[in-house]
Amino acid sequence: MGVESIPKEGNKVRIQSYKHDGSIHRVWSETTILKGTDHVVIGGNNRTLVTESDGRTWVTREPAIVYFHTDYWFNVICMFREDGVYYYCNLSSPYLYDGEAIKYIDYDLDIKVYPDGKYHLLDEDEYHLHKERMNYSEDIDAILKRNVDLLQQWIERKKGPFAPDFIKVWQHRFNNDFKSY
Fold this sequence. Notes:
Mg(2+) 1 binds at residues 90, 106, 110. By secondary structure, the protein is α+β, with helices and mostly antiparallel strands.
């Protein structure tokens, strides 16, 4: 019996984020799969329960589209707010899906992108602290630096999940094909 590696469209799955040392970081209880291929998973969620590593819980405030790719060390959350689309990009290992959840390792660094296209790299202090504590290898450090550069290029060129058509298509699909509220 093989492990399921592609989540099926319409299924609701959990997203589990880990730290490099294997400890759980954060869990999103439910995301509706809008597209699943060998390389890409796109999901949607709204008012989803999130559990932090310390047991605290909160509920997401707005609808969001999530983008994962097997070839890149980042994932992207597109959040729909009244004043536009905000993106929260996690520098992370490529995801895997094991039939139970979409799983990845969170590597601390994040990029927040505002509706006007401006963006900021966040949590560099946390990255350096965890790099020391959890012994990130030089290879991982180099991969993450390359992926920060790549992600910034995607943002500036409006590529992938930053393309206006991506947002229109997947927001419409989530709102109309999968009753989310």
